[in-house]
Amino acid sequence: MKAYFIRTEGDHTALELREAPTPNPGPEQFLVKVRAASLNRGEFLRGTMKPAAPKPAGNEAAGEVVGSGERVMGRCPGGFAEYALMDRRDAIPAPPFLSWEEAAAVPITFMVVHDMLVGQGKLQPGEWLLVTGVSSGVGVAALLAGKALGANVIGTSGSKEKLDRLERLGLDVAIQTRKGDFHDAVMNATGGKGANLVVNNVGGSVFAECVHALAFEGRLATVGYLDGVMKAEIDIDALHAKRLRLFGVSNKLRNAEQRSATVSAFIRDFLPLFVSGKLKPLIDRVYPFDRLPEAVAYMESNAHLGKIVIHV
């Protein structure tokens, strides 16, 4: 079979297309005939990885279980290949009306969004959700899911063009900025109360402003650091007086059982929204399998809005 491998050398990430043996599934794995796989920026971050031997590329995919034909989507290490192994605990039924490309665009991003909006964020209908970097992959998914859950959504982005497009997808308040200067606009939008839940995709450069923009008993989810700023000051008085809750969203240190619990929660809370058509991923572009390097270059240009998917 054909499969992509990724090699990291500190400031350089390279993809290699190889002929590789079809993997053999273990007792707790499915062998999946991959139909589509999507890109995740974290896999291709440059300058943050130690040199390492090439490894199978890809983190999520959608396809058919070999032997049963069952349609599945989920975390799928080595998903940029014609066949890949998927842990049975990671396999999510792929609704039949979702295309393979749409199914491949769902698992990781929307499980992260479920964790921060529902699992930890406890977002309720009618509450105000602020998403910094709303035009990022997680940001767009947070907007779509927030609206499906009945929230009012405020988003920040440096691109007016992207904000205009997101307003057509339900964004209630658009703030054009890449800086931590959105407090006043958030307060004006929320009648002076602030946001009930803030999703910080940007990082340390806007962290203090996120805290400043929170309402009483507000929650702040830290999920990304596109700015590369890993430290920030915390307003202890605001944390104390407003009874705030600050939490991180990451699977980096979670074990298999904890990740499996996230899958089960997603199936319970979010899968019905996809089945009903109330929630659907936004796909920017679909590339053929042999043009994966071109797709990565497009992602790194930051021109996209929504997920970039590879058709296998």
Number of helices: 10
Counting DSSP E segments of at least 2 residues, the number of strands comes to 16
CATH topology of the largest domain: Quinone Oxidoreductase, Chain A, domain 1
Mean pLDDT: 95
Tell me the structural class.
alpha/beta
Total domain count: 2
Unreliable residue stretches: none
C-alpha termini separation: 12 Å
Report Rg: 19 Å
CATH first level of the largest domain: Alpha Beta
Taken in chain order, the helices and strands follow as EEEEEEEEHHEHEHEHEHEHEHHEHE
The CATH homologous superfamily of the largest domain is named Medium-chain alcohol dehydrogenases, catalytic domain
Major β-sheet profile: 7 strands, mixed
Shape label: globular
Report helical residue fraction. Answer: 25-40%
Describe the structure.
By secondary structure, the protein is of the alpha/beta class. It has 2 domains: 2-106 and 281-311, Medium-chain alcohol dehydrogenases, catalytic domain (Quinone Oxidoreductase, Chain A, domain 1, Alpha-Beta Complex); 110-248, Medium-chain alcohol dehydrogenases, catalytic domain (Quinone Oxidoreductase, Chain A, domain 1). It contains 10 helices and 16 strands. The strands form 3 sheets. Strands 3, 5, 6, 7, 8, 15 and 16 form a 7-stranded mixed sheet that branches. Strands 11-10-9-12-13-14 form a 6-stranded parallel sheet, with helices on both faces. Helix 4 (160-167) links the parallel strand 10 and strand 11 (173-176). Helix 2 crosses helix 3 and helix 2 packs across helix 8 (256-269). The relative contact order is 0.14. The model has no long low-confidence stretch (mean pLDDT 95).
